[in-house]
C-alpha cells in the first residue's frame, strides 16, 4: 500500500493512435492479459503484475490542455527520453512471438555481458522502441 512518502508505481500510460489495436497488439505480441478495454475504446489496461500498462488516445483534450500535446519521435532515428523493457526467461522466443504478431524487429537478441542481460529490440505499432531482456547472470 502506498503512503504519502512512499508511492507505488500505478500505471505506465501509452498515448496511441488506436487504443483497441494497441491493447490487442500488446496482448498478442508480448503475452499480456487484457484487464479492461472500455466501450468507447478511449482507455485500455493490461495486467502486468503490481503495476498496470494502460493505453489512451494520443490526442485528448482532457490532458492536452493541461500538460501539452503528445509529440511522437520525428523519425525512426529519434526516440522519447524513456524506454520500456519487458523481462522474459526466454527472450529469443518472446522476440519471435512479438515479431510474428506485428512488432518490427530493430535488433535481434544478443548477450550484453556488461549489462548482465540478453537483449533484443522491437518497435510497437506506434513506432515506439521496446526492449526485450532476459537476465543472463549477476
Automatic annotation (TrEMBL):
<protein>
    <recommendedName>
        <fullName>VOC domain-containing protein</fullName>
    </recommendedName>
</protein>
<dbReference type="InterPro" id="IPR050383">
    <property type="entry name" value="GlyoxalaseI/FosfomycinResist"/>
</dbReference>
<dbReference type="InterPro" id="IPR004360">
    <property type="entry name" value="Glyas_Fos-R_dOase_dom"/>
</dbReference>
<dbReference type="Pfam" id="PF00903">
    <property type="entry name" value="Glyoxalase"/>
</dbReference>
<dbReference type="InterPro" id="IPR029068">
    <property type="entry name" value="Glyas_Bleomycin-R_OHBP_Dase"/>
</dbReference>
<feature type="domain" description="VOC">
    <location>
        <begin position="8"/>
        <end position="135"/>
    </location>
</feature>
<dbReference type="InterPro" id="IPR037523">
    <property type="entry name" value="VOC_core"/>
</dbReference>
